[in-house]
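Let us work through a complete example step by step.
Step 1: write down the sequence.
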Amino acid sequence: MHELGAQEKNEILVGLLRALDLHGPGERGHAERVAVYAVATGYELGLRDQDLVDLRYGATLHDVGKVKVDASLVRKLGKLDEGEIEAMRLHAELSLELLNGFEWLAPCLPMIIHHHERWDGAGYPVGLAGDLIPLGARIISVAETFDVLTTDAGWKIPIDDEEARKEVDSCAGSQFDRRVVEAFLKVQPLIQPIGV
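Step 2: predict the structure and record it as tokens.
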């Protein structure tokens, strides 16, 4: 078996993102924006080289498991009921199932499966807390939340960047790692919006 090159890996990423976007329109743009925010934040935190590449892959694919969730849930406008929330929460674990065969993505899997964990331990799927949560997952969590807050998803009204930064900052130490929030808040204003 030959080692995949960067172009082949990118083609796989694009294919997975296309499938995700067909399943839930807007998901590809979300994934791409989260990846940009995550990589900039990781760089600010001192990550370099392969760690940033892995973070980019993990952030880009953090929601890819949604292709295995009922499309009507992924596309639903409006509030989800408890059963629907539980079904949607499986997307992180479903991402793991989907990506497990790609050896080059192995370093990304912990950040993908744990991107909904919370600094205070109240997240899912395992309830990890603090530094037990992989750094990549902590970064993706902040980046994803900011993007969800600022993007029109049809089921909620977006808020402006300044308001979203305040919201993210207010969750530092409970939902998010304070160090990650500080790095994110430093780089986010420098990033031009993409794919909105």
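Step 3: interpret the result. The CA atoms of residues 74 and 108 lie 23 Å apart.
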